[in-house]
Every structure is written in C-alpha cells, then in structure tokens.
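User: I'm curious whether this sequence folds into something compact or stays loose and floppy. Could you predict its structure so I can see for myself?
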Amino acid sequence: MNKKAYLEISFSWMFAIIVGAIILFLAIYFLTSFIKTGQKEQELKASKEIGILLNPLEIGFEQGKQTKLTTSVNTRINPSCDLSGNFGRQRISVKEETYGKWSESDDRVVFQNKYVFSEENVEGKQFYLFSKSFESPFKVASIIYLFPTKESYCFIDAPSNIEDEIKNLNFENIFLEDSLNPGDCSGDETQVCFNSYEECNINVDYSEGQGKITKGEQNLYFYDDSLMYAAIFSNQETYECQLRRLLMRTKILTQIYNSKLTLSSLSDCQNYLSTDLTLFENKINAYLIDDERTSSSLEDIFKDAKIINRNNRYSNCRLW
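Assistant: Here's the prediction. I'll summarize afterward.
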C-alpha cells in the first residue's frame, strides 16, 4: 500500500510539473510575441515619424535647413532607395536596441517624394537632418542628408560659400579649418579636404560648384552644391540610386513644362525653349535607360540645364 501511494503521489507531482511547465512556456511565448509585436509597431511608427519630420525640410529656396531627430534608445536608421515606378521609392526602416540586442524587423515605410542621402545603417540617439533644394534647371525636389551627431566632420579649406553656409546652419559636429591657420578641429573628425593633395578621409575636387568626391576607391561626381553634400554624407550605392531618382523626376517635370509651353499662346517662346526642353528630356532618357551610366557621365545634362535656366530667366514668357 505504501509503495502504491508513493507512486500515485509521484505521478501527481510529475503531472503538475508538466502542466505547469506548459503553462509557463505558453505565458513566456505569448509575452515575447506581445513584446515583439509592440516593438514592431513602435519601429514602424518611428519610421513614419521620420517621414513626417522630413516634410518641413522640403523647402522652396536654395539655402539649406537643418533640424535634429532625437530617439529615446539607441536607434539604427536605414534609408534605402529603389528605382521601381515612375519616380522610384524612398524606403526607411528603423531598428532599436533593447537589452543589448537589435530588433530583427525588416518592415519599411515607403515614400515616393523623399530623397534621403546617408550611409547605410546610420546609428545613434541623435541625428542631424539637413536639406537643400535641387534644381536642374527648375526646382526638382528638396534633398535631405542624414548623419548622426556623434560623428564629427572637419571641413578643411572649404570655399567661402560652403564655409558661410556651414556657419549659418550652426552644426555642432561640423568644424571648419584653414590648412594654414588651424581652427577648431581636433584631428579625430572625418577630414573633408577641398582641393587638397593631402590624403584625407574625403577629398573634394571643387570648382565653381561642381567636381568630384573621392572616398577611398569611390569617385562620385557632383554638379551643384546640393549634390556635393549628398556625395559627402552618403555611400556610393545610395548616391547613384538617388541621383537616378532625381533625374526620373526631372524628366517628368520637363514633359510637364513642355506641355505647358505648347498649350500657351506665347508662340514666340516655343522656337527655343521647346527645342531645348525636348533635347534635354532625350538626354535624360538616354541616361536612364542605360544601367551602366553613373554620375561621371552627367556633365552634358547639367550643362544643358544651366543653359535652359538662363534662357528661361531672360525670356518674356518664363515657365518657372
């Protein structure tokens, strides 16, 4: 009898332990799932909030604007670019660090009218968002540069117009220095050297608003100040992809302005502006259909943009 009772008690305890373990497992599973779901929703919300924060930076003037983005936890922002559709798409995903681990969510918020230039997986708790207007030959879009405040830059021998702009924007992590008269740079920053033969982190060959950015073995070509900043603060893949998106938008806007000109009664403008715009559109289209072309082969397009802008400015029937 005693032995039988002992077996019955042991079985009861064993059954209770098994049931308890199952209940505990289910509780942990559902709690973990709930936390992951909440975290996923929070990250999607953060991605959308970044998109909303970009709206005030979409300016209509040439001068730049800057603002700060602050997060409560260490955050990894990954803006990415794809070329699908008529305008391409800007994707933004956010991952947050919790208890020393990064979330695994790959959900992205998609925008068709945003152009964010940055390195891949920008990380920190505070970020600068800086924007400038991109015009070619008309206002195409406001392009935005994203970089963490914890990463510092030293602009050495920057042209006076760039130096004045950086001072006016009042960045806390971009310093200015003259190679002949050392300034606020400590030497630990990313060195951005203008027209220098020194080996810097980033070399800028700058002449009258255009030139080439060299980062290691990467060469990125720019044709105005807005693209110069884009090349400094982004990687090669992002830069080339976003530049194609901007040209996709330029092509559509060129068609709209040409249609506007055709419909107008100001026939004396059509002899030159219409021809200019048609040739301009054809050159952009030739660039876009050739996947092998990069920023190095855009000089003619941007030269034409300057000519068209000048012709429009002095026309008696301005289109923009």
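Summary: The chain is about 45% helix and 30% strand. The longest helix spans residues 2-54.
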